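ok here's Squalene synthase:
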Amino acid sequence: MVKPLELLLHPVELKAALKLKYIRQPLFPPRDNLSPELTRCYQLLNATSRSFAAVIKELHPELRDAVMLFYLVLRALDTVEDDMSIEPQLKVSVLRSFAEKLDTTEWSFDGNAPTEKDRKVLVEFPCILHEYHLLRPEYQEVIKEITHKMGNGMADYILDEKFNLQGVQTVHDYDLYCHYVAGLVGDGLTQLIVKAGFGTPDLGTNPQLHESMGLFLQKTNIIRDYAEDLKDGRSFWPREIWSKYATELVDLGKPANRQQGVYCINELVLNALSHVIDVFTYLSSIREQSTFQFCAIPQVMAIATLALVFNNETVLTDRVKIRKGTTCELILDSRTLQGCISIFRYYVRDIKSRLPVEDPNYLKINIQIAKIEQHIEEMYQDKLPEGVKPRETVAYTKTQQRIVQDKKVQAIEQDEEFKFNMAFTLVLTLISAVYFYVK
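and the structure:
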């Protein structure tokens, strides 16, 4: 829940929260007359993730159910993998055979601990299977393929003694781990988007794009969750990076090593920023508006979080997060490609403004931010001297194609602003009238 005092201290965010709550309308309203099984699936979605549920339920009807079921299947898989009460041999067996269960109609699993909050997804898996078999065959194939890859990837990590004892070693290992937990999700979603006709055909032929979408999100979460993960006896920061700043990973959080810990955070942020340009290319390749918003919201949340953790020693002792009001503002402002780019530009400039000169990666971070800024200039070549034609690069062409859709959304945004101003004026008028009447 949004804290009222927090919003009052940030009036722009208060305005965004009010617009999001009372004025903005979803592109596709909820459907009526859902089957009992489909109704239950959406109830399970709400129970497992309210934030994902909100954006999934606003998707185009062509993709809504497929994405919802994809999420629930992977949530079920993750619930098996996360539950430390399940005997490892059984866990590995379930994970490796999970994709095969999608060919059945009645399979369920009740081997989770009673305290496992998402165990109901596995206990009630038959209702998910019922709706899964009603999807288009090509959507089923995508979900099954990704489930197979992810289940086996999870099983491999459970059996990897070196990983379990020493954690993530190299940056390559870091990327590979993020691939299994997030890159594969991006792969599946991209296949669904392309098969639905909601993205440019080349979106499905360049795996680096969807890989970067997933890795950018996952790496941001891994940096943010340092303290929380250590409490749980795990960590995913790669030794190749953190060993430059401490002998043991836990030492980074000690008061005497705080500055080195901050430098380590900043190098991890640098690593995450390497994916930003691919994120821009991916978003500029989405053609259907609700799908664009579904893809864009997590990315703008990630860059805002990345800016928050940058050069922030609190990360070493506690979990930081962006304000709820900021979240509302980001959701509203990320509905166009230009809005997303503006958000990214704001936060990378914020990172640059707080980069200390003595940071070991000072030059590298500045270079990476300059590359991002240069790519943005290539996308929007609107400040060229008179008579100079824009360079017809892939980035520019994709951006120009996306601008057509952006203009439609900008008209909606202007209408929302008008309605908010009218409502605000009316409320102020009523308050003034009451005040003068009472006085």
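+1. The chain has a mean pLDDT of 93.
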